[in-house]
Fold these 2 entries.
Entry 1:
Amino acid sequence: MDIVKYIKQHTENLQNGLAHTSTEQRQDLKVTTLGFYALLPNFQEVVSKYIKIDFDIKQLISDIKNENVENYRKQCEKSNAEIDVYSEDYEEPEQLEIFILDAFENSVSETKNIESLVGLLIGVIDTLDYYENFSDEPEYWNDLLEKEVGFQNEILTILKTKGTFNTSIYQNRYENVEFSEL
């Protein structure tokens, strides 16, 4: 799948579809997509290393649902401000680490921020595309990628009808997928 062809239109569909969601739906969507990112190699370690915050995933989910994420946000801002790319000891994150860091920041952003939700969903696509491009099984990842775009459209349909969904759908969907380090 040439995702570049579809990404602009899909991003617009996400922006339009998420614009009329409720606060609860947005919180649920953050928790849902976080389930995907938590499956990536060293999720918590990467966040701890670069954002310099230790957290319990269950507590993070609870904090997202209760809009109690200000401390996470402040720590993200602080760690971003401290980055010195010209420092001798600067270590540039690997691509998977960037996906994880972006997802963490998007998941703790303000609930009204539609772009963070779009970022979380597009990040899932980008991650699968990355695996397609750099793994030994591009066909396998391509299949997952093609199905993911349709899956996200299904989520938009559910949200549009003011429906709710199980917040572990991403975790369940990808629990048997081996996300190895590339």
Entry 2:
Amino acid sequence: MDTTSQVGAVPTEAAQGFLRADFPWYTLDDGWTGPRWLGTVGTSPDGEVDYGSLGHGDEPVRSYLAQDPAEGRRFAVVVTVASRPQRRLKDGTGLLEATSVASAAWLAGSGLLTATEQVPMERALRQEWLDQQTTLAWDLADAIDGPGWTSLTLPVNGTPQAFRYRESEYGWVLAGDAPGVHLGAYGRGVSAYGLGFTTVTDLSVFNGE
């Protein structure tokens, strides 16, 4: 990855994780004209960057049912997951599972949960709800070719690409493949049907840069 064209000569701390990746990042294409922001990156136990997210629109708040519709948030987050085979940790202590479209689906689903909180409730009930939803998200990701998902075709670098897609009361999640990576995305208040994806060429367009 060309770090100079990605972010300029002096990258900020927020961009360091993105710049350490050995795979391309994906974002919404030029059809998206709203704000863009840096999400987070995830690393393996040996410190290798394995995935990360880039956000579009309003940064989500932990509420999915605003009392005032004007308080609703519109966002779409793109999750890029490195395409990696099963591999041994560098220190030889264990194996890391291969990544897959299901990995992207799980990360997108859990990302949507992170951006979502049930209406105010007692802490134990909220945790029970979160545990149930997390288990459901994992089960759905593990059965991404099953009836819980539908097919959706969206452009990736201008080429039509098949994705698996599902909606819930909290928002939508999709996952598929792109050159060198697995792609996931999730959002709320933004239709997934008109989206397109492209490789990132300049991280400076994301706020925080």
